[in-house]
């Protein structure tokens, strides 16, 4: 009996101490929220790992709201934009809020299309579920961070994400989404007050058993971060060529990759066309670029640009020795988000040229770009304004632009997925 009373007293004392500790933590957290940031995140991460909850980055209510919104606001309405010698017709086919990190189509049944949508805040949307991705504990969503790109290789999913560890190191990594393991990481960024992970790039293509991945120099008005694009010991501001097989390993080693090109600000789009690699890249204030990417070339940032500086409006050098010029520069800025080949009917219409499509955020438009196949210079640029911030093309299982009956699909920030088709050729 005495033993039971003693045990009860000990339990009550433990509960009392726990209660006092909880109140102290709440008081400290309200006064100094940054102190409990790491422990709080660690607890949520642990609860997810042991199966008590299924999220630690995303709020459960956000997943529920997305499921409700998927079909809301949809209609059969088609909108036509008349171009110079053909029209663009589009309609909305899926509704969701947020910015995409990747957009894919599963057409294995060859019947109804299944969209596989990845959002930058770590959410995966499919027809039958909406869930949080399998992310590492040090993913960092502030400073415009999060899941910046989804990379599909041999049916496995990887993500380029932004990170912050307990030592106040801000960096980027490629994560295997099957086990949340980081297989490739950058060094810590300097000038942490001016980091902007919107500039991290994240475009990729496959070519000759290699993966080409762009990693930008993520900054807002930081000369120190910008200059990493010229530093060959840094992975920032580069297009990196990986051995495709290395993505199947627990770690990508130094011998598995090499810097293919440098001097990039924020290359968000890559495409392989006629065996040539083209990119679209953000400039500073103006000067967004289409580049022909070739091995070991220096594309100039932050020394050369057709844009101007944000802080004082002064110009950059327009050319410099041993630095490649863009094949086209947009003035004013359009904020290009990605680039891809034209659908079959448009490519056939312009069969004497390489036909490319560029999506834009600021200009809210699709641009049809014609490139001379021999001289590799831009022949014409035609703009179709959709009045939405356009982000990604939907890709198939081979990382090519998905198309069916000459229709293709794109994502729009805070809006959803649009179905696009060029028709009425004249």
- Kindly report the average pLDDT value: 91
Low-pLDDT stretches: none
Number of DSSP helical runs: 5
Q: Within the CATH hierarchy, at the fold level, what is the topology of the domain at 76-114 and 193-423? A: Neuraminidase
Order of helices and strands: HHHEEEEEEEEEEEEHEEEEEEEHEEEEEE
What's the helix and strand layout?
Layout: H1 2-31, H2 37-49, H3 60-69, E1 79-82, E2 87-95, E3 100-106, E4 114-119, E5 123-125, E6 130-132, E7 147-153, E8 156-164, E9 170-176, E10 181-185, E11 201-207, E12 210-215, H4 223-226, E13 238-243, E14 257-262, E15 266-273, E16 276-282, E17 288-293, E18 328-330, E19 336-341, H5 344-349, E20 353-360, E21 365-372, E22 378-385, E23 390-393, E24 407-412, E25 416-423
Antiparallel strand pairs: 1-2, 2-25, 3-4, 4-5, 5-6, 7-8, 8-9, 9-10, 11-12, 12-13, 13-14, 15-16, 16-17, 17-18, 19-20, 20-21, 21-22, 23-24, 24-25
Question: Keywords for this structure?
Answer:
5-stranded antiparallel sheet; Neuraminidase; globular; alpha+beta; 5 helices
Can you describe this structure?
The protein has helices at 2-31, 37-49, 60-69, 223-226, 344-349; strands at residues 79-82, 87-95, 100-106, 114-119, 123-125, 130-132, 147-153, 156-164, 170-176, 181-185, 201-207, 210-215, 238-243, 257-262, 266-273, 276-282, 288-293, 328-330, 336-341, 353-360, 365-372, 378-385, 390-393, 407-412, 416-423. Among the domains are: 1-28; 76-114 and 193-423, Neuraminidase, CATH 2.120.10.30. With 426 residues, it is of the alpha+beta class. It is 15% helix and 37% strand. The protein contains five helices and 25 strands.
